[in-house]
Amino acid sequence: MRRILAIVTALILYGSFYPWHFRWVNLPHNPFWMLAHAWPRAFFASDARDAAINLALYMPFGAFFFLSLRSNWSAAVRVAATVAAATCLSSAIEMTQLFDLGRNCSLFDVLCNATGAGLGIGLAISFPRAMSAAVRGVEQAGAFRASGSIALLYLWLGYLIFPLIPSLSVYPVRSKLQAFANPDTWLMRDFFESAAAWLAVGALLNRLVGRKSGAVLAVALLGIPLKILIAGRTATVPEVVGAAVGITTWMLFRNLKRPMLAAAGFSLAALLFAGLLPFRMVAAQPFSWMPFLALLSTSWESAFVVLLRKSFLYGVAIWFLNENGRGWLRSTLAVAFLLAVVEGTQVYLPGRTAEITDPVLALILGLVLMMLERQARESASVMRRKFREV
């Protein structure tokens, strides 16, 4: 319960300070005075939208904070402690936003956040068993277990919904829908990478939850259209088609004698095709030997999306090869070598940036996944010994 509370709190802090553009400001009064006098003089339609977001954001905080408190405390004490915690957290955030460019300090937001926490308390009191059962189900699925497969799913989820900030204005949503319907936005690279990603997601979910993977995968597919409502992100037709191809391919592969071997071949082929597009040679371009230079030269939001995408795609390729008995070392070196060949070829491809980043990233991912899987095996061994002793 407390793990989920920590995740919810981290998401609140992240969303409250996004895009994290802090600067020093000489305030005319102390932050407490400014917060106490920061009641809006007028309300607009955007304020109602922000109020709804604040209510929804603090409802899980209130519910999980209430449930994480000791059950031997009285209900009144737990309610008071939860509302006080939500109020203190919200107030601290609002005062800190005085130094965050583009953010405003608002006492009305504190009221909305405290109200949202109160609604969360109501849910926790009304459905304590259902919420506890849901948390146990998440824990049994291994969502908090340190393992390579879990880490890969988190990388995929981060890529799908980052930066997590909703964009509900009519004009941006309408523009994204128009771009989605525009046939000129078709990119074969998006298709290949989406197909490889969703095939891998199907395989990972099948490993973790077994027969329930189909239902979880169906829910996960909603993340593609929801990207239209996320700031700075959008969905594309190649991404949707690639997802359909990837899921269908996994459904066919899982009935084979060696499904992971077929999945590994499909994943590596998709990476190869995506890396060699547009299959047209030009005069040689420079090759960058400085890893991550291109990522560091772009905005951190765009760089993080690219890093999450590459980390997931390269990580699952390594994971598939290891699942076929190739071992972490050979799997990592094989993917790194393939990426090195692709990057070397991109010197002669138009519109591509040839650099050493991708092979280096594959080597780092292989090491991290190997360490996570080793830790998962050691933890499982300890749990089995404890079970035998009992």
Low-confidence stretches: none
Q: Give a short account of the largest sheet.
A: none
The run of helices and strands is: HHHHHHHHHHHHHHHHH
**Hey, roughly how much beta strand do the residues contain?**
under 5%
Distance between the termini: 25 Å
Number of helices: 17
Number of strands: 0
- Helical residue percent? over 70%
User: Radius of gyration over alpha carbons?
Assistant: 24 Å
List keywords for this structure.
390 residues, mainly alpha
Structure description:
Helix 1 runs antiparallel to helix 3. It contains 17 helices and no strands. With 390 residues, it is mostly helical. The mean pLDDT is 88. The protein is globular. The longest helix has 33 residues, at 357-389.
At a glance:
This protein is mostly helical and 390 residues long. It is built from 17 helices and no strands. It is globular.
Layout of secondary structure:
Elements: H1 2-17, H2 31-36, H3 45-68, H4 75-96, H5 107-126, H6 128-140, H7 148-161, H8 170-181, H9 188-209, H10 213-220, H11 223-226, H12 237-253, H13 259-276, H14 293-296, H15 300-326, H16 328-345, H17 357-389
Helix pairs in contact: 1-3, 3-4, 3-5, 4-5, 7-9, 7-15, 9-10, 9-12, 9-13, 9-15, 13-15, 13-16, 15-16, 15-17, 16-17
